[in-house]
Amino acid sequence: MPAPIRLRELIRTIRTARTQAEEREMIQKECAAIRSSFREEDNTYRCRNVAKLLYMHMLGYPAHFGQLECLKLIASQKFTDKRIGYLGAMLLLDERQDVHLLMTNCIKNDLNHSTQFVQGLALCTLGCMGSSEMCRDLAGEVEKLLKTSNSYLRKKAALCAVHVIRKVPELMEMFLPATKNLLNEKNHGVLHTSVVLLTEMCERSPDMLAHFRKNEKLVPQLVRILKNLIMSGYSPEHDVSGISDPFLQVRILRLLRILGRNDDDSSEAMNDILAQVATNTETSKNVGNAILYETVLTIMDIKSESGLRVLAINILGRFLLNNDKNIRYVALTSLLKTVQTDHNAVQRHRSTIVDCLKDLDVSIKRRAMELSFALVNGNNIRGMMKELLYFLDSCEPEFKADCASGIFLAAEKYAPSKRWHIDTIMRVLTTAGSYVRDDAVPNLIQLITNSVEIHAYTVQRLYKAILGDYSQQPLVQVAAWCIGEYGDLLVSGQCEEEEPIQVTEDEVLDILESVLISNMSTSVTRGYALTAIMKLSTRFTCTVNRIKKVVSIYGSSIDVELQQRAVEYNALFKKYDHMRSALLERMPVMEKVTTNGPTEIVQTNGETEPAPLETKPPPSGPQPTSQANDLLDLLGGNDITPVIPTAPASKPTSAGGELLDLLGDLNLTGTPAAAPTPASVPQISQPPFLLDGLSSQPLFNDITSGIPSITAYSKNGLKIEFTFERSNTNPSVTVITIQASNSTELDMTDFVFQAAVPKTFQLQLLSPSSSIVPAFNTGTITQVIKVLNPQKQQLRMRIKLTYNHKGSAMQDLAEVNNFPPQSWQ
Questions:
Q1: pLDDT(745) > 90
Q2: Strand 808-816 to strand 797-805: parallel, antiparallel, or no bridges (unpaired)?
Q3: This prediction's pTM
């Protein structure tokens, strides 16, 4: 049989292939020749054939049929055969294949070989692919080689020991005696691998970490080695870009970081050397930057001095000026991690961080944006918002949603004045209105409503903002609501903050009608506009007939929501015109919901608009009969009574009775408006306590407290607490205030709380304060429950919770039986 071609010739031949098919054909032909040679037990060319097979394996072709040939080469007495055999074993074998166990005895023999290079091959192979069984069998030989005086073998044995520890952690103590003298070695290769071994042991075992801190005094040894590296002169064999062995320096810094974490004594011992490394390392080359970065991480992770931490942050600040994008990104990421603990030190680099917002790299932009929001406080809010608003104008679409949310949160927390707050949010809505969160519109409307002194200024700004541009729907919704509320101020020109504009009633209606017919307007926006036009019928004097005409036109709209509004408003004009001014009066100042005690009642004027500030009533309130029955089926049991709707059972006898039917039981006595009940739902008889006397006294003025609170639910980061109060005027009434908090890292949205009680009780749920439970326990949702318990029986309740979290709809049921006796006796 002719001699097979050499590896070099095979490589040359394969490289001449012009197509993938031609290369595959060459490989298949050569593999067939190699198989034939293996079958004939050709010992002469086995080494050459395995070498060629490894090259084909590197090209991605199957080479598993050469595994046993590798074992035969390992068993050979020739070094050249062993070298290719061990290389093949590392590439073609792993611990998932049983054949690798056949080489255990060969490796053991080679570990005790008289030639250091054969021992080195065996150590490399064991450290690369040794299974847990092999490591247990051969750990003793590795430990012996770790104590030898041969530095070539010691460095390989140290790395092999790392692999053994990872596979069989309980063998760690076997290598402990051998580690005592490793750091006294002058050979940098041994030092490097020793530090890797010590790092692995410290990371995997707290006991080892404590042993090296106290008994071995490891920190002073590492400090000495690091100091020698810094102070030593030029060494050709270790020098990289003018720095002595940067790889060893980085490894030592990482080990120091582990030793100094949460340990005062170790941290104190390494403070000086860390300061020397930070000040003496050359930064013109990337090698020096790598060492400085590791130094910064070590300083931030141990209990270092404040001056040293400032030095570390200043190093990161210099990184921000580097031309290398990777270094800038690393600096921003590190500063973002430290900004909470060293806020003032990071603030010094604020201008440099803001400049990174203009970087072309999107990753750097995002990190700079996140860090910029973390730096915002009451002192720099104006300057930072100016920069972030400029960034919002020019940034890519994928940044706008996060940037807008960040600006809203920062403005709400640190706004120097209400006018500035409103101007900032309007600027965001003008720039990125289509990217803002759903709660931006109701939040801004509430802010505007409560800023009584600048109503004229706000409505004028909003009017000018939407002239001819309806692309930003949230802005148009806020503008329509404000024009409907404060249109009289707009026409009268009473603005004092800036030069008033001259606007006629017809021009205002032209804008709102344009919103109604615009193709860019959504159904919700049209609802805002139609309701605003209706409100203006009580604020304008010359255009009432025009308003009637517009409203009547939309009585036949294909949009059912718009049609229903128009029909109701038409009825208001035709049948109940004498009540129109009372129904459409201006919204009062909206009080924020308190976090303790009963919820403050937010008064409304009963408008049937898209309710931008009204939270959605929970499904357990007045719902269609079928939906209510479904809930009761879900809660289970036949002794459950449904939640009593907040609408009055018997309507007041007045001329407006039919109108109340039409508009959903609007309360015209100045008391809180009751939730509408669909006409199709049969009314449930209601006890007098629910709404009795609300027009003559505040809702909760007869409450006495002193009852201990309970935790009704705590699961998946959501916690529901009940606080109790009893009525003096009606002892059978218990007022329960629920508080929902969220300890996870993301908000819980669309939160709905439902409850049911046995038939001997009657229960009424008031509207919740919000539908979003903020993350990190930064806020709560409150909701009031009133329970009538005339028979003084022990209170029991079943609750149902629904919400969205991390993109998933969540639902859970629970039973509450641990009510304190004071709440029902």
A1: no
A2: antiparallel
A3: 0.62
